[in-house]
Amino acid sequence: MVLGGCSHPLPLVTEQTYYYWKTSLDLTQEDSRFFQNRKIQRLYVRFFDLDWDPKTGKPYARAVLQFKTSGNLPPQVVPVIYVTTEMLAHLKKYGSTADFILGKIQILARTLGRPDYPEIQMDGDWTPSTRESYFSLLKALKERMGKSRAQPVPDLSATIRLHQVKYRSQTGVPPVDRGILMVYHTSAPQELNTKNSILDDEDARDYLRDIKDYPLPLDVALPLFCWGSHFNQLGHFLKVLRIKPDDPAIGRYFVHLGGTLYRAEEDVYLGGFRYMKGDYLKVETSSPRVARDIEDWVLQEHPNHPQRVIWFNYSDRELVNETD
Fold this sequence. Notes:
Elements lengths: L1 E2 L8 E2 L1 E6 L3 E2 L3 H9 L4 E12 L4 E5 L3 E2 L8 E8 L1 H6 L3 H19 L6 E6 L6 H16 L8 E7 H5 L1 H4 L6 E5 L18 H7 L10 E6 L2 E6 L5 E5 L6 H6 E5 L2 E4 L3 E3 L2 E3 L4 E6 L2 H14 L6 E5 L4 H5 L3
Helix pairs in contact: 3-4
């Protein structure tokens, strides 16, 4: 992507790429052509979730990536490890946990045919109470990566949620090479009256009003997904479900009340769940146009402009095609 003007003397160029967040890797030749046509050099692939086993009192790898195929990938693959809140709450043995993570990554990377990776990304929603433990784990990872035989040593990056930018005096700045600014989930899907909980332009800018002062180099993650929120007749939140905005059942059994809000006109099943007559449905999808506007704004505002924009995630081809 090329931007011109504003406060920068030269256009800013960012590399576009994607997250792959399925538990099964199954890419086709069509995917390979897509990556080549888009000049995608790097794919961020979720390898496993790091969770806590209360029976053993140790961390373990959950939802480990399975390989249906290991081909048709871009030249570079970045392992992404999601750290659960339960793991963060119990984390104490940082060195052994770092060794466990790196060992598991190496096994999966060799199986994938990508034993050399330019970056390891950690994805954890830490809080002030879990900050010390999580940051100690990141430091242990960085230390062990520096002592590895791999040359050059991979970068260590960590995801940064919007609230962790706005309230960084409480949440702190993680000790990593780069942050990945996750510009989505601007409000809670449990709220009936929000405009769009995935990404609202005004909400995002409010969270990021001090982005100029954030001391870590940042890349940007933008949303590429949709969901529905189910509320009962009284407007009480029940659940979030994965749906398609063009699901024919929505037009057939729901009346559109305006914006993202619908009301069931009769009892119906949608997305595997039962809606009673009078229940409410919010259908929210990410807008690549709004995301692009926020991307442009972050590029202009942050003094160390992002090198990459990572779309979350590579699963809905219709939305992926809109990122041109």
